[in-house]
Design goal:
With 107 residues, the protein is α+β, with helices and mostly antiparallel strands. The chain has a single domain, classed as Ribosomal Protein L30, Chain: A (2-Layer Sandwich). 51% of the residues lie in helices and 20% in strands. The chain has four helices and three strands; from the N terminus they run αβααβαβ. The chain has a three-stranded antiparallel beta sheet. α2 packs across α3 (53-66). The termini are far apart. Bound molecules: L-tyrosinamide. L-tyrosinamide (TYC) is lined by residues 30-34, 36-38, 41, 60, 63-64, 97. The site of L-tyrosinamide has 13 residues, from β1, α2 and α3.
Length: 107
């Protein structure tokens, strides 16, 4: 049987706004292939991810040399929209460029 104080504490706790957990974050990853022109990848990074020329070049070369690279970290909906935008642009220009999203690793 709760005491009066315990009961009041519970009522105060229930009245407080719920503290929201931060949303899970996803990284959008670009994959290398042998056919998509480098200039096109840089164009996509500028257009879809709002990268500067220098940053777009850096990410493109990282993907080219290491096989994959992170373009940005977003909430699920924004990550998904950007993946779709990349795949749409690649398909429209008939490039095999691949892009995916994955949960940000814990470490
Ligand atoms: N490897 C490609 C080439 O040599 C360039 C490239 C870079 C393709 C990044 C895809 O995500 C990519 N033309």
């Amino acid at each position: 049987m709760p005491t009066v104080i315990q009961h009041q504490r519970e009522r105060v706790r229930e009245a407080l706004p719920a503290r929201l957990a931060p949303p899970p974050m996803y990284q959008v990853v670009l994959l290398n292939d042998d056919y998509t022109p480098m200039d096109f990848v840089v164009h996509v990074l500028r257009q879809v991810f709002h990268k500067t020329d220098a940053e777009a070049e850096r990410i493109m070369l990282q993907v080219h040399h290491e096989g994959r690279g992170v373009c940005g970290i977003y909430t699920r909906d924004i990550a998904s929209t950007r993946v779709d935008a990349v795949l749409h642009m690649a398909h429209a220009d008939q490039h095999p460029l691949q892009c995916l999203m994955e949960p940000v690793p814990l470490f």
